[in-house]
Amino acid sequence: MKPIHAALASAVAIGAVLAPIIANAETAPVALIIAQGGLGDGSWNDTANAGFEAGLESTGLEGRTIESKDVVAQGEEIMRRAADGGFGLIASLEWIHGEAMQALAPDYPDANWVIMNQTREGDNVASVVFAEHQGSYLAGALAAQVTTDTSIEGINAEPVIGVIGGVKAPGIDKFISGYIEGARAINPDIDVKVAYAESFGDPAKGEQLAKAMFDEGADIVYQVAGGTGIGIIEAAKAEGRYAIGVDTDQDSMAPGHVLTSVLKRVDVAVQSVIEQYAAGAFPGGEVINFGLAENGVALSDMVHTRDRIPAAYLEKVEELKAQIIDGTIEVWDVSTQGYPDFLQ
Amino acid sequence: MTAAAGTGQAMGRERTGAGVAVRAGEIVRLLIPVLIAFAVGALVLLLIGENPVDIYTLMATEAFGTARRTAATLSAATPLLFTAVATAICFRTGVFNVGVDGAFVVAGLAAATIGFALPAGLGLWLIAIALVASAAVGALWLYVPGYLLARLEIDEVVTTLMLNFIALGLTGFLVNTVLLSETSGNNTTDSIHQAAELVRLMPPSTLHAGFIIGLLCVVAYGIWARLTPAGMEAKLVGLNPRFARSVGISVPATIVTVMVISGVVAGLGGASHALGQVHRFSDGFSAGYGFTGMAVALLARNSAVGIILGAVLFGALASAGTTVQLFSDIPLDIVNVIEGTVMIFAVVELGRLTWRRRRRR
Questions:
Q1: Which of the four CATH numbers 3.40.50.10330, 2.30.40.10, 1.10.287.1490, 3.40.50.2300 does domain A14-130+266-290 have?
Q2: Is pLDDT at B40 greater than 70 in this prediction?
Q3: What's the pLDDT tens digit per position in B107-132?
Q4: A70, B277: Cβ pair inside 8 Å?
Q5: Rounded Cα gap, residues B140 and B123, in angstroms
Q6: Mean pLDDT computed over A53-78
Q7: Could you read off the pLDDT of A177-219 as tens digits, one per residue?
Q8: Cα A186 from Cα A179, distance rounded (Å)
Q9: Which domain holds residue B352?
């Protein structure tokens, strides 16, 4: 026991000595506001919570998650209460809290605020956005290689692939243009069919649109359509073709019929922000872009399809990924650059 | 005809047993299910190794500890004032309308749409137009099941319940398509113009003028129920339709009327929530306010005073139940247990009283 006590004592002593050096370091606890759907959604909230726990673990900070059945209406009260209650870092996963957060953040200059998937202003507000165009680029590059390889089950010889968006909006076209750009990097003559479901919650429409694309010779369809996408994946399964999932790992929704999924690693983002905060380097006022370099977007592990895809294709994807990370390739970002020539 | 005799007796008792005694009795009856629920909650807390006294103290502080927290509680109670009144109007008439949530949601979307789509230059007129329009939308929404019940005797529980699903589907579809905000990847409309926002009563709290409108609805309901012939007739229809018919009250007309009034109140609630609280329409606009409002109406036995107390209680559970998570390890589930138990015992208590009253005759 004695040596342990001694070790502890010296650790405390070292801590005391070091403390002034890292005076910037934040110690006030962290709050994570859970979005609609709540914990246990197997998706956005759970992924973020995993990053939250990992961040607390690695920094030793205290933290709490807050759930509410009425998270839409109560957001502002929750955020103010957290700041009044002495929380130093308050992150919300709920999209709709962004406007209120921007409005109330100046009232709490000592607190640090984090919002996702949108850009908000304020010296103590960090906006986390994901470079979905980069992840989509890799998906497009993979699809363009696979689509002409008839040795793969369910693939025809035509260089035709598809993508279905929920609605025509810059936030969605960011994915679509990245996908097209990636596909063209492999095959400049590839035919990428684009359709919009005009809905994020209509699986029947998704299924119908996907089937139409499969009939026109497409064998891989990327879904960027939320709940509508469930129908797209269903169609791929029914027709013996492939879908590409989005946001979370959807490969297991129809094993063997989801080529890959373009992941949004909100866990990486949450953990990283907590660690920056703990180190006294909270990126207030900044838009933090989580792209391939930050591991903020990625392709899934492809547990059901990896064996079918020739290794050379995956190597090519890795090569493109490295080029995007080192800046050799700059993927067009509709949300900041407007529309490119190939997608109007 | 024993039921009719019983009705007369019950009414007589209410009329003669006026004043403080009845009010006190009302409040005690309201308290019983609440106390039982908190006892059950305490038991659950003990089982998971928490000290109920500490937790309840923390919850009380979070609900009413400061002016700001009280405002947060009243803010959470605001939609419930509307939905509870809208429910009580029907329940006391014997119409089991469970469609208030649907009316709240469609009217909320109507108000939000008016709030962002009409020119901002209309100023305060925006609010007036939105309130009138959402009252009309709510009225129309519940007129349909009211008419079906009154004229064709189609069960209102089924129609209003189904209409809730239609309301969610319809608004979900619209907010995903034609009304979807250009600037959002999420399912929300644009924000309403600032001119269309209801004024906040205690900034920075979100408590807004909708709370006053809600209180006015409760007061109007109380007056209608106790002092107007129409309110009396509605009560008679609820107590005994055959007796009501025999004294010359049109049962179908009364049913349609209360459903339309219920729709108006639910619609105003949706507008208040859109213009005062959320400032737009989005997925998750109603956190089941229609159903919580039903629990409030049952707990209050349709009395106006009881509705205010019940709405504040459920508002407190919602606001404190959320923020206690910041300061303790209590999951949201414990609050759900308390809410659920209140609801169960509110209904059980009602059943027991009715049963006892019937046996006495």
A1: 3.40.50.2300
A2: yes
A3: 999 999 999 999 999 989 999 999 99
A4: no
A5: 26
A6: 94
A7: 999 999 999 999 999 999 998 877 789 999 999 999 999 999 9
A8: 11
A9: 36-360
Does the residue B151 lie in any domain?
yes
User: Could you give the CA distance from residue B291 to residue B284 in angstroms, rounded to a whole number?
Assistant: 14
The position carrying tokens 């992150």 is A91
Radius of gyration of chain B (CA): 21
Chain A residue with CA closest to B76: the answer is: A74
CA dist A267 and A262 (Å) reads 15
- Answer yes or no: is pLDDT of B198 > 70: yes
The answer to whether position B29 is within a domain reads no
Best residue of B191, B322, B330, B336 to probe chain A, by most A CBs closer than 10 Å: B322
Higher-confidence residue of A57 and B349: namely A57
Q: Looking at the whole model, is its pTM more than 0.90? A: no
Q: Residues spanned by CATH 3.40.50.2300 within chain A?
A: 14-130+266-290, 132-264+310-337
What's the rounded mean pLDDT across residues A258-268? Answer: 95
* Alpha-carbon B242 to chain mean position: 29
* Residue B10 counted as domain residue: no
pLDDT at B352 over 60: no
Which residue in B277, B279, B323 is closest to A81 by CB distance? B323
Confirm whether B64 is domain-assigned: yes
Q: Does residue B88 contact residue B300 with C-beta atoms inside 8 Å?
A: yes
Closest-approach residue (CA) in chain B for A95: B186
DSSP helix/strand/coil, B335: helix
* Amino acid, single-letter form, for residue B244: A
CATH code assigned at B243: 1.10.3470
DSSP state of A283: -
Radius of gyration of chain A (CA): 22
Q: Which CATH class is domain A132-264+310-337?
A: alpha beta
**Total domains in the fold of chain B:** 1
